[in-house]
Amino acid sequence: MQWLFAVLVIFVFQAATILVLEYKRPANAMAWLFILFLFPIVGFVLYYFLAREYQRRRRVRRRGGIDEQRRAEIIAKSHLISQPDQMPSPEFAHQERLFKLLRKAGAAPITGCNQTKVLTNAEKAYEAMLEAIRGARHHIHFSSYIIRDDETGRKFRDELIRKAEAGVQVRLLYDGIGSIKLGKAYFVPLQEAGVEYASFFPLRPAFMKKRMNYRNHRKILVVDGTKGFVGGINIGDEYLGKHPRLGFWRDTHLQLEGDAVYGLQEVFLKDWETATRRNPKDPEYFPVHQCTGREAVQIVAGGPNRRDDAIHETLFAALSVAKERIWITTPYFIPDAGIAMALKIAAMSGVDVRLIVPLVPDTYLVHAATMSYVDEMMSYGVRFWQYSRGFIHAKVVIVDRLMASVGTANMDLRSFFSNFETNALLFDAQRIGELEQDFLQDLRDSREIELSAFRKRPRSVKAKQALARMLSPLL
Question: Which residues does 335 contact at the CB level (< 8 Å), separation at least 6?
Answer without folding.
Answer: 343, 373, 411, 412, 413
